[in-house]
């Protein structure tokens, strides 16, 4: 079986991010048939149509090329004010323009962690809406919402919650099947 080439984006930049911990757990839980590379978007400037027409800034061009070449994208993000964090939305806005935008028919899996009980659910539905418009193929199930995340990871970032660990395994094996299914459909 071919090894899938997956890239991952985290919606939080902070070092002690629970979403980064959840992303790391998902990567560690992925089947051996999948390799996951984390992409950094810290240097992406705020979208500006004038910059866009001059040519993509280097950090945007690099993200675009890597997402385009990947078999699928894992996005793990917090919810900010009931929606997608501005930084992550800004990345999606940069990578949304033109016929060669990299999301079209791209398999995507989503997970989120939050300090509150809903685990970022409202963010996920907004993110799904944006990705739908971009013609991405977002995995439907399992939905992974890690609520009250501060009780589910220890000081070293290890997940201490069996339910979250199981969700991470289930997400990544479902994503493996999803990516392969999409590839089969594309022929
Ligand atoms: C600007 C901002 C807005 C937030 N809005 C929400 C929110 O709408 N819903 C929620 O559950 N948590 C919200 N939170 C709390 C986050 O869930 C919490 O800070 C979480 O740890 C952020 O993710 P991270 O640990 O990956 O950085 C917000 C936090 C910030 C910084």
Q: Spell out which ligands are present.
A: flavin mononucleotide
Helical coverage, percent range: 40-55%
The low-confidence parts are none
Number of domains: 1
Q: Cα-atom Rg, whole angstroms?
A: 16 Å
Number of strands: 6
Q: Which structural class best describes the helix and strand composition?
A: alpha/beta
N- and C-termini, Cα separation: 16 Å
Please tell me what the overall shape is.
globular
**According to CATH, what is the topology?**
Rossmann fold
**Count of individual helical segments:** 6
Measured by DSSP, the beta-strand proportion falls in 15-25%
Determine the oligomeric state from the structure. Answer: single chain
Can you write the helix and strand succession as a string? Answer: EHEHHEHEHEEH
């Amino acid at each position: 079986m071919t090894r899938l080439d997956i890239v991952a984006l985290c919606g939080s930049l902070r070092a002690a991010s629970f979403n980064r911990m959840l992303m790391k757990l998902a990567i560690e839980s992925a089947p051996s048939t999948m390799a996951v590379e984390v992409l950094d978007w810290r240097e992406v400037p705020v979208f500006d149509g004038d910059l866009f027409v001059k040519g993509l800034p280097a950090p945007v061009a690099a993200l675009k090329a890597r997402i385009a070449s990947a078999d699928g994208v894992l996005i793990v993000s917090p919810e900010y004010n009931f929606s997608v964090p501005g930084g992550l939305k800004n990345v999606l806005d940069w990578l949304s323009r033109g016929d060669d935008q990299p999301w079209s028919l791209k398999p995507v899996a989503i997970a989120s962690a939050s300090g509150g009980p809903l685990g970022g659910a409202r963010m996920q539905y907004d993110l799904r809406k944006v990705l739908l418009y971009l013609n991405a193929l977002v995995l439907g199930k399992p939905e992974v919402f890690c609520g009250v995340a501060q009780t589910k990871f220890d000081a070293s970032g290890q997940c201490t919650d069996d339910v979250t660990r199981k969700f991470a395994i289930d997400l990544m094996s479902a994503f493996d099947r999803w990516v392969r299914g999409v590839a089969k459909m594309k022929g």
